[in-house]
Amino acid sequence: MTNLPPAPLENVKWEVPEPGARLERDQVVEFMPGPLSPLFQSLYLPALDVAYYLMRVSQGGNEAGGATYRQLAKVLGGQHPGQAVVNGYAYRHFPPGGNPFVLRPQGGRGRRSRFNVRDVSRGYHETPRRWRHEELPKYLATVELWRRLDPATAEDERLLAGIRTLSWADAHYWRFVDEVLAFPRRADEALQEFLAEHAPGANLTSGMLLDGSGSPTMQAPIDLWRIARRIRSAPALHELVATTPAPRLLATLDGFTGGQAVVREIAKYLAEYGHQIYSLDYAEPTPSQDPTQVLSLLKSLVLERDYDPVAQQAETRARRRTALRDASRHFRGRLWWRFRWRLFWAQHYYPNRDESQFYLGAAWPVLQRLALELGRRLVAVGTLARPDDVYYLDGSELDRAIEAQRDELPVGDLKHLAAERRELREARKRLSPPPAISQREPASTPEEDAQNVITGVAVSPGKVTAEVSVILSLTDFDQMRPRSILVCPLTTPAWTQLFPHAVGLVTDVGGITAHGSIVAREYGIPAVLGLGDITKRLSSGQSITIDGDAGTVTIEDQTAVAAFPAARRTGRSFPAVAETTAFIGLETPLPFEHSARKRLLGLLARPFKAALYQAFLFIYFKLTGPSGGPAAPAAGRRRTRNRTQAPRT
Fold this sequence. Notes:
Number of helices: 18
């Protein structure tokens, strides 16, 4: 027998790595839903820790240089990492002293931070500008540099250097993404809190008032739908796509009269969107590497004639305008201006949320090509059994394998070690990691009563009863049933294309500021997140009820309905794409590419924009205090007396 699932792990304990510490699965860890591969864990997590420390140093978080280098040495030595791994799953690590990224000067307490309008206004203006015009271009330039390397002719050491460099480049980019996300996150929270406090009975949410239709992730399903519409317009192509299994679709189209144009469009789609990740762990294939899920989704769109994402977005915008009119009726006078202020900042920063996350993992299609080429060479010499076993060795073990390969010698123990780690990782995928781990008390788990009612985090209001589609990864996208409830571990921007088909959302991990909660509110569907192991409790076809106001999920039907036939996943790229696409990765002109004239105008306008931000904030905070701002520092906020006002009648 082959391909049997590994035996379940027994006596698994979820414990903190040091006394008094606590672990949480949020922020960057939400993009690492499964157990990590050894290569990713050994290269990416340390790079992420160092990137955060360097950010604090650059922001003046430490005034004593000696302490900075000592703390940085601790990070490099793994003594106080910002991320920890328990049973293969990543957690944010908070040591006993608090946040590991808060650096303090040597020999005394740090100066107490004070609310400063100038600093806040600079952050409002400089952080998004630096991300868009400096850090994003720098990251993509690094990706482009290594894309030009021919893996077939590069030396082994050069391939490993590319893997390391691209890992560090993406980790450094995530640090800036995290900083950029703080603004839309805080602005969204401020608007949501305001609506809940001053219009509690209106059933209004911030997501109803925010428009993200112009983001790349919202454009992806439209572009794929246009390819499907082109296929439907030709009866012969329609019949071919409907009857051909997804793994053979590209090769079949490439040999069919008129199909070559469709192959070119699919290749262009993969070049633009094929880097979108389900997991930050590059051991998981991207759509560029294995486009099976994209082709399966394309087949579904060809057969689903009623689906029209353009009309759906127009309907969503109409609902948003109606919601804005309804919300405005609940406020008058000064309260109305406070509402409009929060709405302005939420709308201002909202597009940055999806766009910044869209480029996460942009390096992975290039990195995967380098890694698999190195893996093929290690297979040829006998060090590994299969090319993708390269992900199950850490950086130092790859150094040892490359050194032995110079003499054409295998390292036999690495073959067995990689096989054992692969089996262990597959077994760990069946575990349900708790959302938090603390030494003081056991991690909180969702409550369930005798009536099969499970309580999680209410993130988007509304109530709906429907069948569920349990989608565990990108490779299951073809299993999404129209008008069903999406049940998944978590969502990233790559999952946005499923939301138009969903009437509700339920996830294992997440909270009020998670990607899924924001998109669910934007689409106006009820959502409950943070249910722990809901993907293991439910099967596709079961009927559940979501109450997005109470934060509960009720299992109505214990019987699962047969799911759609699953497409065979090969994990291989298809020759038609490799031959047609100039390169794997981002191909379209990027939004930050400006002419020299525009760059000069931007530099000249920069101080005036900063002054405008500062004046604007100074006037507002003089009137309302720092708690009124969407991203005021916690140290500078002071509690203000709540003022409620009855809605207009």
